[in-house]
Amino acid sequence: MFSLTYEFRLQPTKQQVETFQDWLEINRKVYNYALAERKDWYKSRSCQVNACSLRSEYIIPADTPRPTFVSQCKSLTAAKEQYPELKRVQSQVLQQTLKRLETGFVSMWERNFGFPRFKKVGQLRSFVFPQLGKEPLKPGYIKLPVIGWVKFRQSRDIPTDATVKQVRIVKRASGWYTMLTLQWNVSVPQTMPYGEALGVDVGLMSFIATSSGLCVQRPKFFVDLQGQLKLLQQRVSRKKLGSSNWRKAQRKVARLHERIANIRKDFHWKVAHQLCDQAKTIFVEYLNLVGLSRGMLGKHCLDAGWGQFFQILEQCCFKRGVYFQKVDSKKTSQICPNCNTETGKKELSERVHVCENCGYTTDRDVAAAQVVLQRGCAAVGQTVKMLAEGKFIGIPKMQESHGF
User: Fold this and answer.
1) DSSP letter assigned to residue 335
2) What are the distances in angstroms from CA 289 to CA 59, 334, 400?
3) H helix or E strand, kind and range, residue 143
């Protein structure tokens, strides 16, 4: 199976907007109630055997089973008799909200994420229709269960041979959007290393530096608009909390944040296509992005958005048939790409790589990109010359290069 997501801007009527707002609020309450039920169950099991809390203690019978997605879906069906407003929302939409909470707990257990938090008013900004009826699309319109036909701005053609698996309605500062998940019953073969290979190193001085010598300067998306953002946030703080002017000022802050995110994402896509134009095999570093974001330069690392760039580059490579792989990032700036001699740790102010062993001199980031290229070629068991000639033997199970 092969899936793609198409995003379009909705143009709903005033009544449809009110329905969207109402559904988001009901989904938020269901999410918070289900989270409170799970949290109370966990806290009732955390009481010490020989002591109780001085403030309060959760007393739940010992034979009460742990709340799960299945049990909470059953409870949701019974709750509709007690709370009639739940019937206004399509049943599968509420179930997807409970599934979203279940995904949060699974990520906490398996991926070391934080404990799921309660959603304040306005924090839940999307809901999902997992199934649609027959022929849900026509030019410029989409048919949503219960709501009916909703107009959207069809900025590109939608493939007619695909099946619409689900629809997500998203609220943003600039309006309402829909994300259509299309699915094809085909299997796409994995791209193999071939053609010109390229190593990519990311940094703060140069956003990317490639093994071929290309250096792209890093635009300061957030820093350049930080002064304007500070001014708007000051205006929010001077308004009366909850007033109409306070909400208008908040919307201006949200629009600016969205503008920064859109500028950053547009830049990432342009750079990704530029790299795919230059090579058919791309290697990048496998970085600890969480650790970098907590360092001294965390603000600038988050502003660069390396994690989003790597995701976009991988998507772009997949769509254009370019092989993409991450390699080990240890000591990429401490090794000479010409003689593989370890030159030692460099200060951040040292922007030129000079090897005392062989005399090789180049830009520091370009040298690191060349080391990334060598490690990538070693990981796939090839050399740069073999990739350029189209020769390929096979990818080893352990995609790590040795000797570094």
Assistant:
1) B
2) 41, 20, 20
3) strand 141-144
Could you give the CA distance from residue 169 to residue 27 in angstroms, rounded to a whole number? 13
Q: Rounded to 10 degrees, what is the CA torsion of 173, 223, 309, 281?
A: 150
pLDDT digits (tens, 9 = 90+) for 358-396: 878 888 888 889 999 988 988 887 655 555 555 444 433
Place of tokens 């390396």: 306
Q: How far apart are CA 164 and CA 148, in angstroms?
A: 16
Strand partners, 199: 283
Buried b or exposed e, range 31-63, using 16+ CB within 10 angstroms: bbbbbeebeeeeeeeeeeeeeeeeeeeeeeeee
Do the beta carbons of residue 144 and residue 113 sit within 8 Å? no
pLDDT of the residue at 302: 92
In the structure encoding, which two tokens stand for residue 298, read together? 């965390």
Which residue is associated with the tokens 């909390």?
241
C-alpha dihedral sign at 78, 81, 86, 91? positive
pTM: 0.85
Rounded CA separation 261/374 (Å): 34
CB-CB contact of 203 with 363 (8 Å): no
Within 13 Å, how many C-alpha atoms sit on residue 152's CB side?
Answer: 30
Q: How far is Cα 120 from Cα 95, in angstroms, rounded to an integer?
A: 20
Question: Half-sphere exposure of residue 267, counting CA atoms within 13 Å on the CB side?
Answer: 19
pLDDT at 387: 54
- Give me Rg for the CA atoms of the chain: 26
Structure letter (DSSP) for residue 170: E
Mean pLDDT by 10 residues, the chain (404 residues): 91 96 96 93 76 69 87 92 93 95 93 91 93 90 94 92 93 95 88 89 90 90 92 95 93 95 95 93 91 88 93 93 90 84 80 82 88 88 56 39 34
Q: If you ran DSSP here, which 8-state letter would residue 218 be given?
A: P
pLDDT at 49: 66
DSSP assignment, residue 402?
S
